[in-house]
Each structure stands twice: as C-alpha cells, then as structure tokens.
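Sample entry (370 residues):
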Amino acid sequence: MTNSWRVPYVNFPAQWEEEGDLVRECIEAVFSRGDFVGGEAVALFETEAASYCGVDQVVALNSGTDALIMSMRGLGIGPGDEVITPPNSFVASTAAIAHLGATPVFADILPDQNIDPEAVANEITQNTRAIMPVHLTGRVADMDPIMDLARKHDLFVIEDAAQAIGSRYNGKKAGTFGDAGCFSAHPLKNLNAGGDAGFVTTNNTDLADNLRRMRNHGLQGRDTVLEWGWVSRMDTLQAAILGMRLARLDNVNARRRHNADLYHELLDPMHVFLPLERSIEHNTWHTFVIQVERRDALKAWLADNGVETAIHYPLPLHLQPAALELGYREGDMPETERQASRILTLPANQFLKDGDIEYVANCVNRFFAA
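Predicted structure, serialized as tokens:
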C-alpha cells in the first residue's frame, strides 16, 4: 500500500449519518400505522414521483427488473416478438425480454456507451415489436432518432431508465419518451431504497391500471382474479424512504454532477477518454465511467492507493453463456467489445469531498505519467 488515503466507491455509513433521523421517522410512521403492504406511503410516492418525472402515472413495484418485465407484458410483448436493446447493460434488461419468451436483438453502441440509433435501424425486422434503449451511467440515450424509428415502424419504446432518475435530454426527463420508463431504486442508485424497489412511469392509463392489478396477483378487489399475476408490490416502508429521498434527489444529483465536473477538469484527456456532456444533455452521473488502455493495471494501481473502482460491465451480454442460443459471436458488436476491455468506473458518490476527487484524478494521472 502506497498511501493511507481511502476513497470508497459507495458510502452507506455516510448516508446513514446524514439521513438517519429521517429514516427513523419513516420507520416509526409505517410501524405506528401498521400498513406494511399497500400502505398510504405507496400511493403518496407514486403521486410525488409522477410529478417529479413529469408523467401522468407512476406504478410502484418491487424492483427495476419487474418494472421491465411487467411493462413489456402489459404492452402484449411475448413469444415471437423481437426487442432491440444494447449488449453493454446490466443483465436485467436482456433477461426481462427473455423471460417473456421474446427474443433479445442486440444493437451496438456509440462511444458514449449508449445504443446507436443507426445500429437499431439496421436490426429492425418484421418481427420487431419494441426498442429498449438503456440510459446507461445517467446519460439519456439519443431519443429523438429512436422515437422517429418507433413511429415509422409502429414499435413500442420501453426505456430502461434504471440509472437515470432526474436525467434530461432536450429538456425532457428520462422515462417520459416512450410507452413506459422503468426505474430501479436499488440501494446503489441515486434515488435509493433500503432494499429492492422499482417503479414504472407512463402516460398510458390502461397500462398503469394493468400494472397495478398484475403487481397484486391479478386481483380485482380481494376475491376476483382477472388474470394470473405476480407479487411485485413495493413495501410501504421502502415507499416511505423513497418519498423522503425523492425530496432530496436534486441535491444528490447536483453533488454527483459537481464531482463529474471536477474529474473533467483534472483528468488528463491525453490518456483518459472522458464521458462528455452535450448541450442537450443533463447527466446525473449514476456512474462515472472512463475508458483507458491498460485498464486492469490501472484498476490494481488505484486499489493499491486506496481507491475503490468497479467495471460496468466486463463481459457484454451477447457473449454471456446464457446468450449462446441467440447465436452471437465475438466481433458482432465491435464498439461494445472494444469498450469492455477499456471501461473503468471511478467513485463519484455524493459524499465524496473535492479532495477525494483530486486524489483519485492525481492517482490516475500519475499512473500514466509513470
């Protein structure tokens, strides 16, 4: 170890120190009422989240993965249908398509890590039913051409906005472009619960009604089952915590944007490909992902110097063992594969100080200078 400085990738103890009293208030309110399932905090969170995102409806669920699965099912996507999505996402996006019996079809990405609209256009067939862009790292995908394609070919658009709560593109927030926006509130997200949670944004009232029924066994009332559903309710306690944190989200995102600005100022662009922000974008930097040569050596160097990092994601989905039956081979997604060996996620959480960011940037620059 060359230095005693520690820069954590995430810092849950710091979040507890900052919000502990507020979380205790949430717990006390829910336990004093005893409305643990389907309680008033769930409906309140749905209303407040819909207002924040700028949509008519929010449906609270138990995970971002269920948000993807149930949104597609509610739109009638199933066996025989193809859904186009990028191969550099977390497994949930592609797995959600496969779980419905539909076929994931991969389209390569741009240097900014988001799906390439031209690649999407090249993958559209008579069996294509939907496009699932993934707003990776907190940057909204290039939605104008994607929506143009959807209108031209009469396709659904399901936004995987798990990493992009509060992010904007041409003034519109993530989750407001397509038929459904699917969000995760996993503890690692900018808007984080104390466990698994997720929700769907939509302006489609029929879809929202279907999701609310399907998350609760498909029940209408207590005793009539209209269709076989699931148990995918958001716990009342998680809704209460998320409601409290939703009011603080813009400050969280602002602090993460400040950290990203510092990285852009301090990292040497001669050796580091930096994720830039276009004028039409407002990125919330769920992750700050650089691209470098000798990535693994840099990761080890940073660990030796007390800096925690991550890789999102080292093996693209089209090359995963689970995807063998889809028939993809190495070389099919050249930009995704090129980036997979170069991407490295630096710590950017909202509890870091300027000195932490300066230290990380200095370590990266020293690695390449050496």
